[in-house]
Amino acid sequence: MFDPVIAPSGTLLGLLQRGRGDGTLHALTAPRPEALAALNHCVLRDPRHDWQLENRSLYYARLYLDLSGELDAVEAHLFDSEDVLDTDESRTGLALAVLGHLASYGRRDALDLLRRYAAQGSNWAWALDELALRDDDAGLRALAAPVLARFSADPEGEAELAVAVRDAFEPRPWRLWAEDSRESVGTRVRTAQEAGCFDRWQRQLRPTGPRPGWSVAAVFEWAQQGLERGAALHVPAARCLVAVAGPEDRPEILAAARAGTDGARCTALRYLADSADPDTLDLIEAAVGDGTAPVVEAAVDAFERMRSVAAIDRARRWAQRPDALGAAAGRMLACRGGTRDSDLVLGALREAVRGEGPDAPTLWTLVDGAGRLGIVCAAPVLRHVYRETASSHLRGRAARALAATDPSFATGFAVECLWDCEESTRELAARHAETGDTRVVERLRRLAADPAEEDDVQTAVRSRFGPDLAAG
């Protein structure tokens, strides 16, 4: 999936794409056609950089409810001819997840669309998973024939069916169909279930990789072979070294960390870091200076895993380096440093935003560190990250850091966070938002009464107002 184009944060579309609470609040005061157009744009063109990590579906579904939004645009998207040409689940996954939430809120039109798409669409398995959680037994049983018709009756088709049954995220439909008295349904599904179980058993009997009795050199060779195939195996290889290496093998491992093949060098650095070898830090510094990109990445990762006092002291020396090791040192101090390191962490945070922007991966750790260390003067940078990042998870981390550093958080960002797309951010807001604002009390009551809301959020709401909130 290509990276989505994110509109500016000050626009309605940009707010909705980011999943910010202000997106919902602005949409509810904007002209309805404009709000629905922006909402449909988000649902039909998934704005998430990582759709497996970030939440949007419940956020968008709630807005459809608040706007009494029609689903014509979603229907046209799902059943467009493009559905046959582009079968990547990222094209339709968000729309199907939104329909699933709408169906749970009682929207019959959403349920009907899911049933139609499960019978006809390319991403039918996702639709079936949504229905498995929301549809009744009769509705699911009616889908048995159209779904099974997708698989031919020849050996190839039966093998594909067995894989589909084995890999189904929600097994409920397949269990229902296995009980069907028709041979073309029940017998066929039971056979596929048995084949899937047999396939798992066979795979367990065919393990690959290191075997007992391997030498250190054999482990290094295995790691290099993986790297040449495009598979980074140095992490499992380092675990193998723990089992096969003895004190007498240390010179060989040190030599590999200094000048071995890339696979061996990555493996040795990881092993030495995990075992707190006294030469590790010097070897990591050397690897960053003369290693290839995979070696540098492995060296930096190995360094960040270290917990020793020596590693933290070295991080203080490296924190101002203008390279990957300097960035890693800043992150280490953010995670494990003390108040004496606040200036270094703040400097790393500012430099990351200035040099890489509000979506830099390094910000996740630095933002957490600013909150952990209570760096009050980091609040302006944290507010900038909160507003501008396209990552709803990073925004949530910024909100958590602001709760620890910004005295205005409870009356400011915490209020809009009650409408945020991320459960953890709504939970944070439920614990911090100032209840003197009437919008806050009304929103908390709605969250407490919403059956789709996550338990942790509702627990946070009850901690503020007690068990009678929903009824009040």
UniProtKB/TrEMBL annotation:
Query: What is the protein's given name?
Result: HEAT repeat domain-containing protein
Q: Could you tell me which species this protein originates from?
A: Streptomyces pyxinicus
| Organism lineage string | Bacteria, Bacillati, Actinomycetota, Actinomycetes, Kitasatosporales
